[in-house]
Amino acid sequence: MSNEFTHLDDKGAARMVDVSGKDITVRTATASGRVHVSAEVIALLRGAGLPKGDALGVARIAGIQAAKRTPELVPLCHPLAIHGVDVGLEVHDDHVAIEATVRTADRTGVEMEALTCVAVSGLALIDMVKAVDPAAVITDVRLEAKSGGKRGEWRRPE
Q: DSSP assignment, residue 97?
């Protein structure tokens, strides 16, 4: 079997790619997503708050923790020294927008860490609002941009 796929060995079994020969470079990735919620949740987020407490603060911390633990959740991700995680949550009229940027100086990128950060931030937000809005839903989790490494800059086309 030809090894066309980097994460498969010659017999087709999954493997973690050896990145030891790659250069250490500063690498950054930004991901985004949305949590669609009811008008009642939006009003509570903008006003008195939710019954469980600071939903946006909990979602932010959950995302940071998730970025740091990505290799435990995604089997072929390399453990990395995460040097920074920024998580922004912005309340709109019908959703909460989530954007996460993760940085490292290492041999492989942090795209999965940024995506995991957004996804878990969304899950934590749903956990905080589910008593008020059990229909809340996460959508559009996607990579927006990355930099560093051999391939350099990439930005999602508009």
A: E
Q: In CATH, what number is assigned to the domain containing residue 33?
A: 3.30.70.640
Alpha helices in the chain (DSSP H): 39-46, 55-73, 111-129
| Residue 83, strand partner residues | none
Determine which one of 10, 93, 127, 133 is catalytic. Answer: 127
Tally of domains within the chain: 1
pLDDT in tens, 65-92: 999 999 999 998 999 999 999 999 999 9
Does 81 map to a domain? Answer: yes
Could you give the CA distance from residue 77 to residue 60 in angstroms, rounded to a whole number?
Answer: 22
Q: In angstroms, rounded to a whole number, what is the distance separating the alpha carbons of residues 33 and 143? A: 9
Which phi and psi (to 5°) does residue 39 adopt? -60, -35
Tell me the whole-structure pTM to 2 decimals.
0.91
Distance between CA atoms of residues 86 and 7, nearest Å: 29
Known catalytic residue: 127? Answer: yes
Dump pLDDT digits (tens) for 102-148: 999 999 999 999 999 999 999 999 999 999 999 999 999 999 999 99
